[in-house]
Amino acid sequence: MTINNTEIGIIDADLLDNGTRHPNLALMKISAFYKKNGFHVTLLENYIDIDNYHKVFVSKVFSFTNFPENLLTRENVQIGGTGFFDDGGVNLADEIEHSMPDYELYSNYIKKRLDQGEPRQRYVDYLDFSIGFTTRGCFRKCDFCVNKKYDKAVKHSPISEFFDPNRKYIYLWDDNFLASKEWKGILGELVATNRGFQFRQGLDLRLMNKEKALALTNTKYHGDYIFAFDHVEDMALITHKLEMWWTYSKKPTKLYVLVAYDSLDENDIENAFIRIEVLMKFNCLPYVMRYEKYKESKFRSLYIQIARWTNQPRFYKKMSFREFCEANQKYAKNQNHICSCLKALNDFEIEYPKIAAKYFDLKYEDVSKY
Fold first, then answer.
1. pLDDT digits (tens, 9 = 90+) for 318-356
2. Least buried of 15, 25, 48, 141, by fewest C-beta within 10 Å?
């Protein structure tokens, strides 16, 4: 077999396994670099013909993404990403890292999907957004986070490095933007693009102050503001920051709520509801993030149902958790059996009636003080 030394293959393993709504930024930069240097780059949609390529770059973000293990021994295959390495692996060379992403990498793939009748909304991240990092790093080094390579947030790249003026919006993968001393100047760069933008990793609400709140709320921010409320021990600080935040912003605000990390018992369930109640008071949307160990808990099903409730605002804003579970039972195909949602609630309530009585009937419209 003759290998064409100008052929480069790109494999987005997440895309080939479960599918993903997010393009892989590292792969787009690799593609751009090699195209610039005269190579022909192809996004591969299977693992069949990788021997035909001079090099094949494979990346995955998620550790649970399936990947043919026998490919790891191929000399022409190079892997990277947090799905393979806890810290993401070796950094891209600077000349690749600071390349304008190849926003056309996924074009043929997406066109085929759209021609097959899939909704365009599924691929807006591929089609409508410029993507990049303005800063890298975070000083917190949370145990559950993969971003521990840096001791602080540092300026990474100017907006011009990844901004495509033909795209409507910008989204950013910064680890902890508000921890950077450069935040104000970068925000000015974003405003100058006249594009809506958003920080997909969320912003560190604990670092919010009046200056930052005023600056952020006077931009064309796209979509919900996203923060995090990972630990119930931060309740006093988060409450204080939300009170300040609401003097400046009336836009929808979402906070990631980490569960199944500190423990897998009834205390973790209660801590989740304590944080949800705080967010209800401030008209905020919780987005429950289940740490992977939730599968080891006897409350595995309950974690799933809580996330199903909170992560769908149309239910969370209208129903208590109990009403949500009862509604699931009402629409169950087999009324002779209790559905998994109501069963999870019932089982927990029998064992921990005090916790259930305190939180399962909380309702957004009753709790909100706004």
1. 999 999 999 999 987 777 789 999 999 999 999 999 999
2. 48
Task: Tell me the per-residue pLDDT of 31-58, one tens digit each, with 9 for 90 and over.
Answer: 999 999 999 999 999 999 899 999 999 9
Under 8 Å CB-to-CB from 78, ≥6 apart: which residues? 55, 56, 57, 58
- Domain spans in the chain, listed from the N-terminal domain onward: 1-122
Over 80: is that where the pLDDT of 297 sits? yes
How far is the C-alpha of 193 from the C-alpha of 165, rounded, in Å?
Answer: 8
Q: Mean pLDDT throughout 75-103?
A: 91
For residues 325 and 344, what is the distance between their CA atoms, to the nearest angstrom?
A: 9
pTM over 0.90: no
Convert the pLDDT of each residue in 229-263 to its tens digit: 999 999 999 999 999 999 999 888 999 999 999 99
Flag whether pLDDT at 121 surpasses 80: yes
